[in-house]
Amino acid sequence: MKDLLNLLKDLSEAPGPTGFEGPVRSIMRRNLEPLSDRIETDGIGSLICRRAGMSTSPKIMMSAHMDEVGLMVRYVTSEGFVKFQTLGGWLDQALIGQRWQILTTEGPVNGITGIKTPHVMSGDERAKVFKKESIFLDIGASDKEDAEQRLGVKPGDPIAPTSTFERLNDGHLLLGKAWDDRAGLAVMAGVMESLKETDLPCELFAVSTVQEEVGLRGAHTSSNLVKPDLGINLESGVAGDYPGISEYEAQEKLGAGPAVFLHDSSMLPNLKLRDLVSKTASESNIPLQYNVLSGYGEDGAEIQKSEGGTPVINITVPTRYLHSHNSLIDYRDVEHAIDLVSSLVQKLDDETVNEIAKFD
Ligand code: CO
Fold first, then answer.
1. Is 125 a catalytic residue?
2. Cβ pair 257, 287 in contact under 8 A
3. How far, in Å, is the centroid of ligand 1 from the Cα of 37?
4. How far is the CA of 214 from the centre of ligand 1 (A)?
5. Active-site residue, from 212, 213, 235, 302
6. pLDDT in tens, the chain (360 residues)
7. Cβ contact 259:278 at 8 Å
């Protein structure tokens, strides 16, 4: 895909905590509008782009989520510090010592989560984890009135992590926030672009969902609208290729191709679809990995449970250090995922999808 690195940079740097996906939706709309026949949104903000094929059946739904883990203002203390609610799964350790942006109706307000200086800590205190309930944002306000009146900070305002994109030491790895799931959105945009001149045997939907990190909500509402015959969810996977994580916990490696989830706590894939993905990868010489996770939930689960039940697969871009300010992907895995899903979609005609959905 041309401009893949620019798209990845734009997506990673865009603020989009759960419930505040507007900036990401604008990027997806701008990129997908020229490649779609019809664009609509569902009732909570998921962006549904339709690409007509030679037939209106089967309906194939690709999905990737726009929201990132973030925070929300709970209240401002009388001294002008901001207490927050987490949006999505944060480790308490990952919250501290970071830069953030509060997205107020008047514009962004920068803040930091500071940590008490070690100079005044006891030995016990130095060894402990600071709980999120005790953490606050310092926005340089003199008191509550200054924070609310001059800076315009209100309860309910979303708070996004601040982190700039870079290509790490000129290698293949891309450093940035929110690869979960901006990597999946880039794959979806790449598939739409690579298929733009191709006559499709199906009707193809590229759905950018909202509110995944708080319970797969946009996937639920959008799949009710699309009513897909088959789903391909595109996610950031869990790499297990760095110190302190075991193969038992996660098997994906950066640079070794996209992965298929064989198990996560929300979904089991359709096995015929799993085998078609494997066959497609090997025919096209695309490297493919597998992962089995005990935890993790993803949008594919909602597509799977929609209507009377739908065949779904979750295909991922392996990612290190998810749900933090600094995560890593390998852009070659993004390119391979685009190639894999593009080849797969071209095989999904009525006969193939009916066979996948058939149980004897
Ligand atoms: Co995700």
1. no
2. yes
3. 27
4. 10
5. 212
6. 779 999 999 999 999 999 999 999 999 999 999 999 999 999 999 999 999 999 999 999 999 999 999 999 999 999 999 999 999 999 999 999 999 999 999 999 999 998 878 888 888 888 888 899 999 999 999 999 999 999 999 999 999 999 999 999 999 999 999 999 999 999 999 999 999 999 999 999 999 999 999 999 999 999 999 999 999 999 999 999 999 999 999 999 999 999 999 999 999 999 999 999 999 999 999 999 999 999 999 999 999 999 899 999 999 999 999 999 999 999 999 999 999 999 999 999 999 999 999 999
7. no
14 contact partners, CB below 8 Å, separation of at least 6: 23, 24, 27, 178, 182
CA distances from 329 to 45, 162, 179, 261 (A): 27, 18, 7, 17
The token pair at 204 is: 């193809």
Q: Ligand 1 is a single-atom ion; what residues have CB below 5 A from it? A: 180-181
Q: What is the distance in A from the centroid of ligand 1 to the CA of 145?
A: 37
Write the burial class of residue 104 (CB in 10 Å: 0-12 exposed, 13-18 middle, 19+ buried).
middle
- By CB atoms closer than 10 A (0-12, 13-18, 19+), residue 83 is middle
- The pair of structure tokens assigned to 192 is 């739409």
Q: How far is the CA of 69 from the centre of ligand 1 (A)?
A: 9
| 331-347 helix and 179-194 helix, angle to the nearest 10 degrees | 50
304: tokens are: 């799977």
The sign of the CA dihedral 225, 205, 234, 266 is positive
Quote the ligand 1 centre to 168 CA distance (angstroms).
Answer: 22
- CB hemisphere CA count around 88 (13 angstroms): 33
Provide the b/e sequence for 215-246 (b: ≥16 CB within 10 Å). Answer: ebbbbbbbbebbebbbbbbbbbbbbbeeeeee
From the CA of 130, how far away is ligand 1's center (Å)?
25
Alpha-carbon span 14 to 27, nearest angstrom: 9
